[in-house]
Amino acid sequence: MPTRAPRSLRVVVAGGHGQIALLLTRTLTDRGHDVVGIVRNPDHVADVEAVGGSAVVQDLEASDVVAVAEVLTGADAVVFAAGAGPGSTAERKYTVDRDASILLAAAAEQAGVKRFVQVSTSRAGSPAATGSTPVWVAYIDAKTQAEDALKATNLDWTILRAGALTNGPGTGRVTLAGRHVPRGTVPRADVATVLAELVVSGAAVRRTLELTTGHVPIATAVAATAQ
């Protein structure tokens, strides 16, 4: 019998203009999936379209559950890849990295979208080191609170804690596990590929994963999280 082609997915990516989000959009659209990027700035729509996606202009800091749920309706998966970014204030770490994630998860529940993948950081889950700047303390706290809020939902969530991000080319090989991953770096391109594999495969539901550069091919590493 002929092999049936994989079903095309509709994936909504919050923070659609971020570096990882654009790489993820390109990866997914190249595989035949439909990606909608949520962007705050109308000037960023063209960049999302240039990598094969479509874009919705919506400010998650100024929106509500009903409005966001409308964007998510009919989606197969949601990826939270938004962040206040370098140079932002401690206040915006909470309004974007925490509150926007919580809003998106609530909207996903309302829209009936079960699959939710959250981009976090390897530093989350414990307080920032003594002597850290107030902005860094806020960032780690916001990411940790966002993780905790997501875990309390009924969504099929996966939290991906990425190591220190670099802009080098992807290696295609990673260390990906639920614990005991030494802190290290990882190219944004490999983070995007891991996210794509998590979304398409549906692996690692209700698991928190740590990610750094390693020696295992990405598809193999993601498949192992389902075991």
From TrEMBL:
Top-level taxonomic group: Bacteria
All copies of domain NAD(P)-binding, residue ranges: 15-199
InterPro entries assigned to the protein according to its UniProt record, in alphabetical order: NAD(P)-bd_dom, NAD(P)-bd_dom_sf
Pfam families in alphabetical order: NAD_binding_10
Protein's UniProt name: NAD-dependent epimerase/dehydratase
